[in-house]
Design a protein that fits this description.
alpha/beta; nine-stranded mixed beta sheet; five-stranded mixed beta sheet; 17 strands
């Protein structure tokens, strides 16, 4: 049986104001002149509910198999790639993918329509923040692919369809990596290598996401100082940013949660910080239940908060096949795979990998380091509530109106 490789790539970079990085161009806006509104029907909202549940569950699985490293992922991107694969599946293979995504009560057309709406609207919600979604299908020159699969990928997922000669390994690797580099703002230069592509490869599917956002309330560089982050590997001296203002916030005996908006308020970052008596493991387990996550969002209210958090630049790669098998997607990886809507040839998935990056700072460039480790007295006296992310925490980046979970990360060390 021949193998079809599905490679998943996601890259997202977060900046709070102007960047000197010419690949981003966020200081000139994102090129959107007429922002679009994301309009989801009642059926779409139901699909989204299940989609977010999949996101939380996948993230939980990644944390359980983690060795105290940082985690950076986009469950949304994984879901989108599985949606593309699902369009090529039939029978039990189709059912396993659909059911594991939580879509068992919806047909193929309804699911495709849902993804199409997201891909069309999310990159154009505002004029400021850059959110790019790029899909591509790289098909071997001698592979006979069903026209309906190519049509669905192009129409619903706005995918670029290209032929490559996988027998020329070096050339095909260079072509795909060049596409990835272009569609991730130059941030990731290599997503495939000789371990993934060989003469037996029939197809590679790639999903790339890139997000560069400006904080609605920026951090002033003069308040950035060297301070201690209590990581899983011990105390680290890092650059800690600080500001005071009105933010949506909630805290109890187990955790604190803070919502930080991006300009134009279409996207936000939720920072979830375990209490000293709790742990990131306990908090992750709690939030993985969607009803708990929804309750936390409802409990937040706008309050005066002093925020202290580290700057960081993290990259993370993971092979998702084992985790997907644990949640019920099995046949697509073995000889039972039914991918007959992709090709009449016997195909199976060789692997699904994800590469992610997140950059969080005040300006998008390295700031000059201050020498003081003290808290500005004006900032400290301003707020009744103190949010100090000086130990491991998690973040969720989402679209605000409907709550589409786009990215998740666990910061264990800087």
């Amino acid at each position: 049986m021949k193998k079809v490789s599905f490679i998943l790539l996601v890259i997202f970079a977060l900046f709070s104001c102007k960047s000197n990085n010419p690949t981003l161009g966020i200081e000139n806006g994102n090129g959107v002149t007429n922002p679009k509104k994301l309009n989801l029907s009642e059926k779409d909202k139901k699909i989204l509910t299940y989609n977010n549940a999949f996101s939380l569950n996948l993230y939980r699985g990644m944390c359980k198999s983690n060795d105290n490293s940082n985690i950076v992922c986009s469950p949304f991107s994984a879901s989108a790639l599985l949606g593309m694969i699902m369009n090529g599946a039939e029978g039990e293979t189709f059912n396993q993918i659909r059911n594991s995504l939580g879509f068992e009560e919806f047909d193929r057309d309804g699911i495709n329509s849902y993804y199409e709406k997201l891909f069309e609207a999310l990159p154009a919600l505002d004029k400021t923040n850059i959110f790019r979604i790029a899909n591509s299908a790289w098909i071997g020159e001698n592979t006979l692919v069903e026209e309906i699969f190519i049509s669905d990928c192009s129409h619903f997922f706005n995918a670029t369809i290209e032929n490559v000669d996988f027998r020329k390994e070096e050339t095909s690797i260079d072509i795909i990596n060049k596409w990835a580099k272009t569609n991730t703002g130059n941030n990731i230069k290599s997503v495939v290598d000789h371990s993934m592509i060989n003469a037996n490869t029939e197809m590679v599917l790639v999903n790339a996401l890139f997000f560069s956002g400006k904080w609605a309330s920026v951090f002033d560089k003069k308040n950035t100082s060297k301070n201690v982050f209590n990581s899983v590997v011990g105390k680290q001296t890092v650059d800690m940013m600080e500001q005071a203002g009105d933010f949506k916030y909630y805290g109890d005996e187990n955790l604190q949660i803070l919502e930080m908006d991006y300009k134009e308020n279409k996207y936000c970052m939720d920072i979830i910080l375990p209490d000293e008596k709790s742990s990131l493991e306990i908090v992750t387990e709690y939030i993985s239940k969607q009803e708990n996550w929804n309750t936390l969002l409802q409990q937040m209210e706008t309050l005066p908060v002093t925020v202290t958090m580290p700057k960081f630049d993290l990259q993370y790669s993971v092979e998702l096949s084992a985790m997907l098998k644990r949640i019920g997607i099995e046949d697509v990886f073995n000889k039972s795979a039914n991918l007959s809507k992709i090709s009449k040839e016997n195909l199976l998935v060789n692997g699904i990998g994800q590469t992610s990056r997140i950059i969080v700072n005040e300006t998008g460039t390295e700031a000059s380091s201050a020498t003081s480790g003290t808290v500005d007295s004006e900032l400290q006296s301003f707020a009744k509530y103190i949010f100090t992310a000086d130990h491991p925490f998690m973040i969720i980046i989402r679209e605000k109106e409907y709550g589409v979970i786009l990215f998740m990360a666990q910061i264990n060390q800087i």
